[in-house]
TrEMBL record:
Role, per record: TFIIF is a general transcription initiation factor that binds to RNA polymerase II and helps to recruit it to the initiation complex in collaboration with TFIIB.
Protein name as annotated: General transcription factor IIF subunit 2
Main location group: nucleus
Originating gene: LOC113795500
Alphabetical UniProt keywords: DNA-binding, Nucleus, Transcription, Transcription regulation
Protein's UniProt keywords contain Signal: no
Length: 287
């Protein structure tokens, strides 16, 4: 598999953004300004990054359907005479990458949430990645992989904890607490088949055995005469048919069968009984 390394030397910022921001970014059209970055340094030399969302992003309804573009990155153009950065989108998708002349910004998000109003001002909490080697990859519609750049800065986009943000969290918690399952009244009854211990077929079998009663052993000669009469009609019988005809217990019936019959263990009459030759009175033509 080929990998496009044209932008391998480009610096990229990897930034984690809140869910409500990533959801609105994914609905923006190509080359839309999504916000502005303000990068300054305090008296101690530490970098401070402020991010303000554009009015169009704030007004975006996350519940409306939008047509995503074919690109998968968000680029930022930096004005050298000012510390502010204008951010525009070239492909809004779930993974967002921003690029500037000296460095670029990538965002990673979790599952989106829905809300009606979001705060505009945010700040970046920048972390040190001197002991890490990170890179950003992209994949187009043709499954072609490309290296978008190496991560030179890692951070997290955090909203400023003002009253606007607190109202947003309050609304999010309220929606999450709403039940997802509700009780509905049906106009007609629905047949609900529940599991049972004993099925009707088993009850019928038990009733049949009960009606027949316990099988009693008859005299041996009576059972033999019954078997001879049965074998006059058919040459081969299985044990279940003989049990039904004689109404004798199976162990007792097998004792008598071993004396007057042969058991076939091979095809074509496998598992069936037939009279021994000395007890047969039919010829070969009747077999």
């Amino acid at each position: 598999m080929e990998l496009d390394c044209q932008n391998a030397a480009r610096g990229v910022w990897l930034v984690k953004v809140p869910k409500y921001i990533s959801q609105r970014w994914a609905k923006q059209k190509p080359m839309t300004e999504i916000g502005r970055l303000n990068i300054t340094r305090n008296t101690s030399g530490k970098m401070e990054v402020l991010f303000n969302l554009s009015e169009q992003v704030i007004r975006t309804d996350p519940n409306e359907d939008s047509v995503p573009s074919s690109s998968s990155s968000i680029k930022t153009s930096t004005n050298k005479s000012s510390s502010s950065t204008t951010t525009t989108t070239s492909v809004p998708t779930t993974t967002i990458t921003t690029v500037s002349t000296s460095s670029s910004l990538s965002t990673k998000t979790d599952k989106p949430i829905t809300t009606t109003s979001i705060p505009a001002e945010h700040k970046f909490a920048v972390s040190n990645i001197n002991h890490q080697t990170l890179a950003i990859f992209s994949q187009d519609e043709n499954s072609k992989l490309a290296l978008e750049g190496q991560v030179v800065q890692k951070g997290e986009c955090r909203p400023i904890g003002d009253a606007h943000y607190m109202n947003l969290k309050k609304e999010t918690i309220r929606r999450a607490s709403q039940p997802t399952k509700i009780v509905q009244k049906l106009d007609r009854a629905i047949n609900n088949f529940k599991p049972i211990n004993v099925h009707r077929s088993e009850l019928n079998e038990d009733q049949r055995k009960k009606n027949e009663g316990k099988k009693m052993r008859d005299d041996k000669e009576i059972v033999q005469n019954t078997l001879f009469a049965a074998f006059e009609k058919h040459q081969y019988y299985n044990i279940k048919d003989l049990e039904r005809l004689t109404k004798q217990p199976v162990p007792y019936l097998k004792e008598i069968l071993k004396e007057i019959c042969n058991y076939n263990a091979k095809n074509p009459h496998k598992n069936m009984w037939e009279l021994k030759p000395q007890f047969r009175h039919y010829g070969k033509n009747n077999q």
